Amino acid sequence: MIISQTPYRISFFGGGTDYPAWYRKYKGATLVTSINKYCYLFCRYLPPFFEHKHRIVYTNIELINEVSQIKHPAVKGVMSYLGIQKGVEIQHHGDLPARAGMGSSSAFTVGLLNALTALENCQKSKKELAELAIHIEQNVIGEVVGSQDQLATAMGGINRLEFNSDNTFSVTPINVSPHRLVSLEKRLLLFFTGFQRYASEIAKQQIENFDKKKKELDTLLDLVDHGQKILTDDNMDIEQFGHILHEGWMIKRGFADCISTPFIDDVYDRALKAGAIGGKILGAGGGGFLALFVHPQDQERVIYELKDLVHIPFKFEFNGTRILSYA
User: Fold this and answer.
1) Is this model's pTM higher than 0.90 or not?
2) Which CATH number goes with the domain that contains 229?
């Protein structure tokens, strides 16, 4: 059995500029980190003693004989692309809920590619896995998704990701001092709003407004540079990171009516009044997870104010997708 472990991610700045509809016309960049919450895929060849050839286990259980019969879009897309011939069993387990802005869909696709290519003895590099995942999600499945999640979850660590008009990508690890890294990690809180949504539906509305919002998207690109400078310059006040998170969220929430909601606005306002410096809804918006920048001395008050939400402690991680077992 092959077991892959792939981290979820937090995107700080530049989200939206990683969609092909944007970066094929203009440059795109994001500043992201992976965290120690994971998607696990268990894969093995299925013995030929059952009435079904393939067994796919996630929130549903699929017992099927042909890849064309698979209902899970990522499983169907990956298995079709790889041309899997033998019967397989695939089981998914995740530390966080799906459709919540943590890059879970891409972590699934990357992790499945990692596990199945290892099972087929044709394992790829992390960059190759990310690029394959981008191709499968955008072209094979036809989902309206960006290109940062696949790279962030495959590579791991804190990175600057750049997206070029020729569909090439670059990954630059951010050289953050250990002290700075701890300072940032201690000031970030993560909450689950309780709402899940389909990011592609929200993304469609954002993309329709890209040309109208070029000035705002250019500002989000500038925040990538600003955020990177704050992280790499120990002489800068780390609190500025929180302030530009707030600036980025104020811009992003204006891209489409569905990105924020009255509930999200209320939660965010309560967090600010309790001491948060800034924050953002992760992913496309509409629900999912809320990341906040809060000084340690104010965190107990913020956590209490948001006691109606689920607080998720986390740390940064630097491994990216990996194979845990070849049993």
Assistant:
1) yes
2) 3.30.70.890
